[in-house]
Amino acid sequence: MFLWPRVLLVMGCIQSIRCKPKSFRDSIMVLEVNSSIDSNPTSIDESSSVVLRYRTPYFRASARVLVPPVAGKESWTVGWIQACNHMEFYNKYGSKGMSSWELPDLRDGKIQAISDSDGVNYPWYGNTTETCTITGPTKKDTRFTVSMNDNFYPSVTWGVPVSDSSVPQLSSIWRDQSFSTWLVAISQSTGEVLVLQTVRWRMRLHIAVDPEKPLGQRAALCEPTAQEPPQILGKNEAIPANALVKPNANDAQVLMWRPRVGEPVVVIPPKH
């Protein structure tokens, strides 16, 4: 596992723990942030005669947080928010053309990033280990850890997706995606957003496929065998407004067929 160096962040004065309770905003402390991508390479599954599947290593992020006693009747949720800010996802079919999962607004430069929420708990990436809510007033320190993980596990058809033929023609897969991931505190009453830490990470892969070979022997991972480690930024990034609201990337993405000759075709329209 690639372990990015641990980052120790203390926000506010340590003595505040022993002083009278302060507001959440003035007293929250991020004690430690860890971020990594598993060291195992992307795995390939050719068990299906219809689709090729692959599973990328996991991106992981966690943070230890301390909130000294909070004086007021305020409620805050602390957790992870993620947005995709770049996506290339091409599946080539020899001389026929390629299919491509695309985020149209991101592709066309209309937005900087798009929410990667679970689609239910906006704007949070998830609502289990990913978040924690603190409600004041409190008399004691509150310590907790919030964590998240992410990876890709898609299916790609062996045959051209706009054809009725199941003849294998898939010849390569290329994927390059980048994300910004924020540790954030949000006030439940005012909606105020405090960005506590920013992490950037990227996932790349290139799979070569020989459709002439027997099932189980067609695909090989070309690169990379190991992903570059995430970056825990020294200066936080602001969160683009659209990264906090609907739609999320899964609902906004569209599958296109781009033939070598002819006009592009929408294979799967966006859900939202």
UniProtKB/TrEMBL annotation:
Domain of life from the UniProt record: Eukaryota
InterPro entries linked: FAM78
Signal peptide coordinates: 1-19
UniProt keyword Signal, yes or no: yes
UniProtKB keywords: Signal
PANTHER family named in the record: PROTEIN FAM78A
Name listed for the protein in its UniProt record: Protein FAM78A precursor
Species of origin: Danio rerio (Zebrafish)
